[in-house]
Design brief:
alpha/beta, Nucleotidyltransferase, domain 5, five-stranded mixed sheet, two-stranded antiparallel ribbon
């Protein structure tokens, strides 16, 4: 890949790959080996989290089109080796108090095989990202509201645990963190303690979100789609949108100093 042209984004916009691909097979061992290395890299590179999770779905029987998508991720990494997370001094951009906040988002039936949605979660401590996730949902969502609700429940579980951990480390109980969702029906569902017809079919475990909201462990808030930072973890987006989100989640260009 040394002579390949760098790519501006880790995936082509709106790319759709299938497990039923009929193109030529590729070396399974090599494919899995590279995916393993890329998954390790996602611990410090949230910008490739969705792309790596997406190509990981085809490790059982990788094909040439899956392999080309992996190559695209490698080309992107080649052109962004100086991109890194930066944790501001004092936690926030204004040096203020460290507070937890989270963004959750979901696409709708992004998986062409199982028709399942993808949950995206981003948790911030001050202005710095400390946890992120891109995960295919285990159930088939029947609406955008349900997909967003499931993603928010996933974020709530992590957020409640991190709030407890922060309190243990500081000795001070943190204020209820804000969970920002860009779907008004999902927010209404989380705030409604009554199981109405629209939510009876949703797995009971996801209603943990309602308990968290009712007990004031978290505060659920609406955020406009354009300011939804977790969007980068749910689907492949265009170059301008990707670069905007990459910057907003805390990644900047940091050139390493050469030693004498």
């Amino acid at each position: 890949m040394a002579n390949y042209k760098p790519a501006a984004t880790p995936m082509e916009e709106r790319i759709k790959l299938s497990k039923q691909s009929t193109v030529e097979k590729v070396d399974t061992t090599r494919y899995r080996s590279i995916i393993g290395g890329l998954r390790w890299l996602t611990h410090t590179r949230p910008d490739i989290t969705f792309a790596v999770g997406y190509v990981s779905r085809f490790m059982e029987d990788p094909r040439e089109d899956h392999w080309m998508a992996v190559k695209r991720v490698l080309r992107y990494i080649k052109g962004s080796v100086d991109q890194a997370l930066v944790f501001p001094k004092g936690g926030g951009s204004d040096g203020g108090e460290l507070e937890l906040a989270a963004f959750s988002d979901a696409d709708m039936v992004g998986d062409v095989n199982g028709r399942r949605s993808t949950s995206g979660v981003l948790i911030l401590l001050g202005a710095a990202p400390v946890a992120w996730q891109s995960l295919k949902q285990k159930t088939v969502a029947l609406s955008t509201c349900e997909a967003e609700y499931v993603a928010a429940a996933t974020a709530a579980c992590q957020l409640v645990w991190m709030r407890w951990l922060l309190g243990e480390l500081t000795g001070i109980e943190p204020r209820p963190p804000a969970l920002k969702v860009d779907n008004q029906p999902a927010i209404a569902l989380a705030k409604n303690p009554v199981l109405h017809d629209r939510s009876k079919h949703i797995d009971v475990k996801f209603h943990f979100l309602r308990d968290c909201v009712e007990e004031r462990q978290i505060v659920i808030e609406f955020v406009e789609t354009g300011r939804q930072l977790a969007d980068i973890f749910t689907k492949s987006v265009g170059r301008l949108r990707f670069l905007e989100l990459r910057s907003k989640i805390g990644m900047v260009e940091v050139k390493s100093k050469q030693q004498d």
